[in-house]
Amino acid sequence: MDRLSIILTLMTGAVITGGLVILFFTFGWYGWLPIAIGAVAGIVLSWPAGYVISRRIKRTDPQWDESRVERVESTVPKPDAPEV
Length: 84
Known about the structure:
Keywords: Membrane, Transmembrane, Transmembrane helix. The chain crosses the membrane at residues 7-27, 33-53. This protein is mainly alpha-helical and 84 residues long. The protein has a domain at 3-58. It contains 2 helices and no strands. Helix 1 runs antiparallel to helix 2. The termini are close together. 13% of the residues are buried.
């Protein structure tokens, strides 16, 4: 379970949605449709973006040891389980 990616998903969703809505408004496209497109794009792209950012943070962190993490056996890991 990548807990960091869950936190980053919330932030990246807001950034993607807000960025697209601002971009649409800048080009003069006002209305509910650009907001809906931005929201859908934010929902669809937020988890992959959060996961990629999480992996990059962990890859560049010298204190992170990938070898000490055991394989997660269930879909919902224990709250006190190590980070994957």
